[in-house]
Amino acid sequence: MKKLLVALLVAALAIPAVAFGADTIKIGFNIPLTGDQPKVGEMSKDAAEMLQEKINGAGGLDVGGKKYKLEFVYVDNEAKPESAVNAALKLIEGDKVLAMVGPQASARAIPAAEIANNNKTVMVSAWSTNPKTTLDRPYVFRACFLDDFQGPVAAKFASGELKAKTAGVLYDVASDYPKGLAEEFKKSFETINGPKSVVAFETFTTKDVDFKAQLTKIIEAKPDVLFVPQYYNEVPLIIKQARDLGYKGPVLGSDSWGSAELMNLCGDDCKGQYFVTHYAAAGAKGATKEFIDAFTAKFKDTPDDVAALTWDATGMVLAAIQKMGALSNDLAKDRTALRDAMSTMRDYAGITGKMSFDGKTGDPVKCAVIVKINDKGEFAFHESVCP
Amino acid sequence: MGTRITVPAALCALLAILVAMTQKDILGQYGVTFLCSMGIYVILSASLNLVNGYMGEFSCGHAGFMAVGAYASSIAGVFLFVPDKVFGHPWLPMSMSIVAFPFILAIGFAAAALAGLVVAIPSFKTRGDYLAVITLAAGYIVKSAIENIEAVGGPRGFMGMSKVVQGMDTIAELPWMLIWIFLSVTFTIWILRRFVYSTYGKGIMAIHQDEIAAEIMSVNTNKMKLIAFMLSSGLAGLAGGLYAYLISFVNPSSFTILRSTECLVMVYLGGMGSLTGSVLSAVAFTIMLEFLKPLEQLKWVVIPLVLILLMQFRPEGIMGNRELSDVFPKLKRFYRFK
Amino acid sequence: MGAEGLAFRAPFAFVTFLVLNQLAPGQDMLHTLMQQALNALQQGSIYALIALGYCLVYGVLLLINFAHGDIFMVGAYVAFFIASMAMGKYGLLPAGIPKWAVLAATVPLTMLLTSGVGVLIERVAYRPLRLKGANRLYVVITALMMGIILEYGNLSILGANRLSFPSLMPRMIFEPFGARITITELSAIVTCFAVFALLQWIVTKTKLGMAMQAVSYDKFAVPLMGIPLDAVIVFTFFLGSSLAGLAGLLYALNFPVLDPFMGAMVGWKAFVAAVVGGIGDIRGAFVGGFLMAFLEVAVVAASDYVPFIKPEMRDLVSFSALLIILTIKPTGIFGKPKTTKI
Known about the structure:
The complex is a heterotrimer.
Chain A: H1 2-21, E1 24-31, H2 38-57, E2 61-63, E3 66-76, H3 81-94, E4 99-101, H4 106-118, E5 122-125, E6 140-142, H5 147-160, E7 167-172, H6 176-193, E8 198-204, H7 212-220, E9 225-228, H8 235-244, E10 251-253, H9 261-266, E11 274-277, H10 286-299, H11 305-324, H12 331-343, E12 348-350, E13 353-355, E14 368-373, E15 379-385
Parallel strand pairs in A: 1-3, 1-4, 4-5, 5-6, 7-8, 7-9, 9-10, 10-11
Antiparallel strand pairs in A: 2-3, 11-14, 12-13, 14-15
Helix pairs in contact in A: 2-11, 3-4, 5-6, 11-12
Chain B: H1 2-23, H2 29-54, H3 62-81, H4 97-123, H5 129-148, E1 158-159, H6 161-171, H7 176-196, H8 199-209, H9 211-216, H10 221-247, E2 249-250, H11 257-270, H12 275-292, H13 299-313, H14 324-327
Antiparallel strand pairs in B: 1-2
Chain C: H1 3-20, H2 27-61, H3 68-86, H4 99-132, H5 136-158, E1 163-164, E2 173-174, E3 181-182, H6 183-205, H7 207-217, H8 221-224, H9 229-254, E4 257-258, H10 262-277, H11 282-302, H12 314-328
Antiparallel strand pairs in C: 1-4, 2-3
């Protein structure tokens, strides 16, 4: 009996020792593995797994001379805001992660960011472009540009290279991202080309597939360019219907076009069009090309912008951890130290571009890339636009 | 003497225990949120049971009323306490937030009840399947309407409620949402119990059995239906308001037909016409959702399948139309329903 | 002229008006109107085909088959797989079969397989409840749940990646009166009218059709008259689901991006159309479908001229129209008021 008690005591003491013994850094991922946009979740997870393999394969992350193994925890936010909040709580409270990457889409990132900020845990959203995500939240960062930068970039490109004097816009009014971006585009385009140069500003709701009524009105107004800040499942239908109705001009897109799925669904209709995005796969050089090759080899799929941005977002968090110098065992202290390290990050060389935080906001100063869909259906780099 | 004070005393004790657990960190924030969502589901399930269970109608628009309540409470809270771009400066200081919160919830209740009134009027002329259609349409209309209202952010959603909750925290460091939800659940069950065992309740059940006969027997069916509808949707609005403050963020896509389906599953799982049943099924449902999480998408194949099998083999649900005291008669010693 | 007569004649009057006014000044406006009318006709044919399915099942079983919209989705997916298989994508058949042959094979196969799905659902889910004499409510709930299972089942099995339907028809564009319509859109409209005519003939002139009408009058007397009730019901589901499958194929040809939830909204709109037209009467479903489409297109087209209306209010207006019609005339445009014996 005594032996049993002693054995139990030793076991009870050993368990926490075992838990603390392996030096690990836990990062949480709040991503949509199910729901409306599982491709986003899938791409995020793939990129993260690749990064984890790379670092752990080299022995772990070196922080102040000590090597730590990376442990990534993935929680599904089901592409729903309240599930994103639950996922954030689970990661922060339950899994006690050091930092959280994601949610990616603004509709989920905004509420989850509130939770992260309230719990003083660093959150980096790779893909959310809505300003509200980081507004007034010192603990929340993002790895991409904002819509109030993307809109003017698109407008300038349309007026400049595409020589458009008038524009038509078709967007989903029920979704944060297209709505904000469409309005930003309109503002800048009209600043450049005069009031009423956006001759058609038509709307539809999510899940609509028939845009012929709106397109008929747009074509009637004879725009020089059509701006469509929509996702890869709507764009092919819009372009096809526009062409069927007689529109022959160029179609300009935004970073939501960047998915590899676009060409599967769109085919020839999309060739020759331009869109603004975070990075271009075809024609990439250097570290970006290495990433793309490794990803394609491992997952048999070209990484889209979400994958690349997740790679960068996670990489930034890891770089900030290294910058901290040392990890104490006090989680709260570490999280605050991580936040300070993140906010003073300068010139982080990401594969989607150099990123710096100015200490005041969590928004990096980043360049955008204009991509042309060439005749082979690849996303080819066209030009880079920096603020 | 013992029978009359036992139940309220037990409830107070339970609340005190829960609060103590959070203070001592036995119950972390995740656990609190879990209990809170369970509470919200209980309110939704019990309130829908009034119309779908006791009254035998087929209302599929519960999420719409929840949305109305959520937005109304959120707007009221932000309007009164939080500086906001659209609503301007707060009218009241944050120190009054605890006192004012029941009023904020009451506003949500009232708004949703009003919405219920609007939906109930066309339903007088129709029954059965047509009511399903009307309520479904009402749910879509509410969602669509909110998406079109810029002032509350439209599809972008509405925020700011967390500041009210934080304001309550500055006064006393307690798990306020847990407390409010607990109180609301108690209130809901109490008011539904009183309603069901009053003349109104009997009128509702008469309408369920045979509307025309009830009309002939001088039951004012229109008035009964109206009140039942308003109470049911008002409580859904209450649940919506609590939900809004719980996750500090409302947007229209949280209130779709899937939400209404969840409510339907809970009602039919628990048993039409059983208050205990709806409470039990809400608890079971929340737990089931938690356990089914690893299944991901298959979750939404399993849950409807459960309901279909239920319809085939046990359509009366867990409790049928019996209450807890019918199953465990000894409990009658501690409290009386009638 | 009653409400029915007016509703039936309105779309045709509209188009006639356009034709007669073709030479009037304001050509651009006219082209736009004509274009919008064609858009509405095309969308309306899909709604009408699905609405007919709802109507048939309701007429016979007094059941709103909420899973019907998802059967439409299944039809589109079935068509996708048959077409892909016929075009040699899975290696089962040689590539290089001409597109018209693929189309010719896809149409009947899709209809057959989709009707199989519908009949299966009836057999497995609805019939046991009907035989038990269960409350109609339980069947409706089963239908609603069946729809969700179809959607999420598809999502789990095939994943959420959207599928691109192969283009089976050449890109020919016709230009009646300055508006443009492709051959796929035109075929949708023509098919819908043809199917309606066929259905009208089946229901009024064949034995099975008359049996279906008999069942909708009095379900209990029918077996007494020597008509096999189960066979009639199976036939109804067969017919309704094959129409949904056909609608799915036509839809996929016109909107070649498939996702598991495509049936949800379209199914709802078609259902609203059936109710507005007067569920239980196939003319009602047919007219209701076009009415819904015209209403939607009108909302978008009129958003420039009428101050409060915006295109995204399309759904809002459709559902509000439903509420208004149900308040004024609960049985719909073509429906006959039912009397209940106490």
